[in-house]
Specification:
Number of strands of chain A: 5
Order of helices and strands of chain B: HHEHEEEHHHHEHEEHEEHEE
Structural class of chain A: alpha/beta
Distance between the termini of chain A: 30 Å
CATH class of one domain in chain B: Alpha Beta
Oligomer: heterodimer
Shape of chain B: rod-shaped
Number of helices of chain B: 10
Number of helices of chain A: 6
Helix content of chain A: 25-40%
Number of strands of chain B: 11
CATH superfamily of one domain in chain B: Histidine kinase-like ATPase, C-terminal domain
Strand order of the largest sheet of chain B: 6-8-9-11-10
CATH architecture of one domain in chain B: 2-Layer Sandwich
Radius of gyration of chain B: 48 Å
Strand content of chain A: 15-25%
Shape of chain A: globular
Structural class of chain B: alpha+beta
Order of helices and strands of chain A: EHEHHHEHEHE
Number of domains of chain A: 1
Chain lengths: 161, 465
């Protein structure tokens, strides 16, 4: 059983890395953690109310969870779980603890795709993950050069270009 | 011109029924109130007469000498004189033969009760009679006091008037309220009737507004819409056949006729004839294949039997549709994409009518092939948490974005269809079939890039273990 960490921007396109993970670790049971990094809210109301934490679930759409479900069904025998998590840290030790706590075995990054977080608070976790000391695999996403017909929210984003 | 006001009859009926029921209840209640008030006042009056009878007895047959005057004084001072008050007494002997007081026409049972219970009551018109049997030193005296019950008569008349007025007023009020409420209740039904009247064969795609409630009225609207779905589907599948037949058949027919005419123009070599015959044979076979597949598509589901639902595997349905497309357009290129196929085949199970679903998919795929000049069309199957997705993607001419919302209107054809023949029936038909299966159809398109049709159907989980 391997725990794989994949940063996501909640685009269905980015879920292609799940497929890449299954192909990279054949014959392995996988548990995948999709992580979305957010800048912590330092404003007074943010610190008091934790409102950002409460609204993070609006960042991803029903189509996104449905796409996760499609992948779970497709790789039912190897994919044990797909979990969505939020990462608020900014220090190296926080990241280390985060990865350790989830006993991550490998990190998968997209080689040819820059994450486009849906909110201003989102941030790029790639550089930190590359320096984390964990095994990092950079996979090609093979996204179409032009945007797909149905836009960002369609399952067809998961199909090979 | 008479105005037809649908629903008015039922509305009136309901209002009247409601009024009668409520009115009857109020009437019953009023009668009960009146009856008990009358009984109570009569009892009360008899008691007053009783007291007077006792006093009459005590005055005329006193226990001790002297009490007679005392009681008389008491009576004059504290007991009011009742209207038309009269008193009678008569001493009777041991024999109970002659007890009746002369001058009074009282029935025999009054005296019988009197002798038996020591007291009796009787009422004739407004006159009340109360009698007691007084025993004094072995003597038995019958004392009867009678009086008119004027006061209570007035009270009861008053009560009667109040109850009657109340009954009439509340009945009128109930009728008005009943009318108002039944009108409100029937308002959605009247609206529905109006919108159903607007639907005919020209605009069979119109649907009733179901609203958000889950009451009987929206159930009715749902039922109407389901019926319209089925009606429209059967109507369109016949149109579909005619339109498909008329232009799919013309291509091979034209080449058969052309080839035959060419061969017959002048004397030709046997090889040339053979060649012509071979072409005619090939085209005829193609014609036969097209007719067969169109007929089988047109017949499915609407062969007079009820549209039966069965458990199907989505990938098999897709394969059947692909084969049907290949028979009609031999040069089409449909590729089934298995990259998102679920591992577990249970996730591919759907409840549906095979013929109808194949017809819907065939129409969508035929469109994809037709409007992309036979470029590759991919059909992907995926399964989510409770829904099955079939994605048909082409690289064709697309649909202009401002025309996308008309694509389900029957006979609508996009402005860029150009030379490609069609009647605008396939997609509305497919949408209806998907709707009958409680699914959804989503079309996204970009001009000259292609079109993507996403079909969502509920996964049948009834056989899951």
């Amino acid at each position: 059983m391997k725990n794989i960490l994949i940063p996501t921007d909640f685009s269905i396109k980015s879920l292609k890395l799940v497929k890449a993970a299954v192909e990279r670790f054949p014959e392995e049971q996988l548990q995948i953690t999709l992580v979305h990094a957010l800048k912590p809210d330092h404003s007074i109301s943010g610190l008091l109310m934790l409102n950002k934490r409460l609204t993070v679930h609006q960042l991803y759409t029903a189509e996104f969870t449905e796409a996760c479900e499609v992948l779970r069904n497709k790789y039912a025998s190897v994919l044990k779980k797909i979990r969505i998590e939020f990462y608020y840290g900014s220090s190296k030790s926080y990241l280390k603890n985060f990865l350790e706590a989830r006993s991550i075995d490998a990190i998968l990054l997209a080689r040819d795709y820059t994450l486009q977080p849906p909110s201003k608070a989102g941030r790029d976790l790639y550089p930190e993950l590359r320096n984390s000391g964990y095994p990092v695999f950079e996979e090609p996403l093979q996204t179409a050069t032009q945007r797909t017909l149905a836009g960002e929210a369609s399952l067809s984003e998961l199909l090979p270009a | 011109m008479t105005v037809h006001w649908p629903g008015i009859k039922t509305q009136l009926k309901i209002t009247l029924l409601y009024t009668v029921l409520t009115g009857a209840t109020i009437l019953l209640l009023s009668l009960l109130v009146y009856y008990f008030a009358q009984r109570l006042s009569a009892e009360d009056f008899y008691k007053r007469l009783d007291i007077r009878a006792v006093m009459v007895a005590q005055t005329n047959y006193p226990q001790n000498a002297g009490t007679s005057d005392l009681i008389k004084d008491l009576r004059n001072e504290y007991l009011e004189k009742l209207p038309d008050e009269k008193e009678y007494f008569r001493e009777i002997g041991k024999d109970s033969e002659r007890v009746a007081i002369p001058g009074l026409s009282l029935p025999g049972y009054f005296y019988d009760n009197l002798l038996q219970d020591d007291k009796a009551e009787y009422k004739s018109g407004d006159a009340y009679y109360a009698g007691i049997l007084h025993r004094q030193n072995g003597k038995r005296i019958i004392v009867i006091v009678s009086a008119q019950n004027e006061y209570i008569k007035n009270q009861l008349t008053n009560l009667r008037r109040i109850l009657l007025t109340g009954f009439i007023l509340s009945t009128v009020l109930i009728f008005a309220l009943g009318w108002f409420f039944s009108k409100r209740i029937f308002l959605p039904i009247r609206k529905m009737t109006r919108s159903v009247q607007d639907i005919n064969t020209e605009n069979l795609h119109l649907r009733l507004n179901v609203g958000r409630n889950t009451d009987e009225v929206s159930d009715l609207a749902h039922t109407f819409n389901n019926m319209l779905d089925r009606l429209e589907t059967s109507f369109e599948s016949q149109n579909n056949f005619v339109s498909n037949a008329s232009h799919e058949l013309s291509t091979p027919l034209t080449s058969i006729i052309g080839e035959a005419e060419l061969a017959l123009q002048k004397e030709r070599s046997p090889e040339r004839y053979r060649e012509a015959m071979a072409i005619i044979l090939k085209e005829s076979e193609r014609l036969k294949a097209i007719i067969q597949s169109l007929l089988s598509l047109a017949q499915t589901g609407f062969d007079g039997k009820k549209q039966s639902l069965e458990r199907l595997r989505a990938d098999e349905v897709v394969l059947l549709a692909k084969n049907a497309v290949a028979r009609i357009y031999p040069e089409s290129r449909v590729k089934i994409d298995y990259t998102l196929m679920p591992e577990n085949e249970e996730q591919l199970q759907i409840m549906g009518n095979e013929g109808l679903l194949v017809l819907a998919l065939t129409n969508i795929m035929l469109n994809a092939c037709k409007y992309s000049g036979n470029k590759e069309v991919t059909v992907a199957i995926a399964s989510g948490s409770a829904r099955l997705y079939i994605i048909v993607k082409d690289q064709g001419i697309g649909i202009p974005s401002d025309e996308l919302r008309y694509i389900y209107d029957p006979f609508f054809r996009a402005s860029n269809t150009g030379v490609v023949k069609g009647y605008g029936i396939g997609l509305p038909l497919a949408r209806n079939i998907i709707r009958i299966h409680h699914g959804e159809l989503q079309v996204t398109s970009e001009v000259n890039q292609g079109t993507e049709v996403q079909i969502m159907l509920p996964v049948d989980k009834s056989h899951h273990h």
